[in-house]
Design a protein that fits this description.
Layout (H helix, E strand, L loop, with lengths): L7 E7 L7 E7 L3 H12 L7 E6 L11 H5 L23
Antiparallel strand pairs: 1-2, 1-3
Length: about 100
């Protein structure tokens, strides 16, 4: 199998326990095991990761960025779902 035929993998790295995995980038690898090893070498060189996920790029389904307006708009009359209509309580500094 040549490098040109290797599948593309999306790499997600979690910096610390309790944090979310964040997309770090993409790489080509022949299989999942080598993708994880290459992701470790490429995206966590300074030991900043605690967990790595690799996902074949062709397994990801995404929304169309050009349809952002219609895709993310609230249905008519349901604007209350957005937190901008609520006020933060006094004495709660982390909000």
């Amino acid at each position: 199998m040549s490098e040109e035929t290797w599948p593309l993998w999306e790499v997600f790295v979690r910096a610390n326990r309790g944090m979310s995995h964040v997309h770090a980038g993409s790489l080509h690898a022949p299989d999942a095991e080598l993708a994880v090893r290459n992701a470790r070498d490429l995206y966590t060189r300074r030991g900043e990761g605690t967990s790595i996920w690799v996902v074949p790029s062709d397994a990801i389904t995404a929304s169309d960025p050009d349809a952002k307006g219609s895709f993310f708009e609230s249905p008519a009359g349901k604007n209350y779902r957005h937190a901008v209509y609520y006020t933060a309580s006094e004495g709660v500094p982390h909000l």
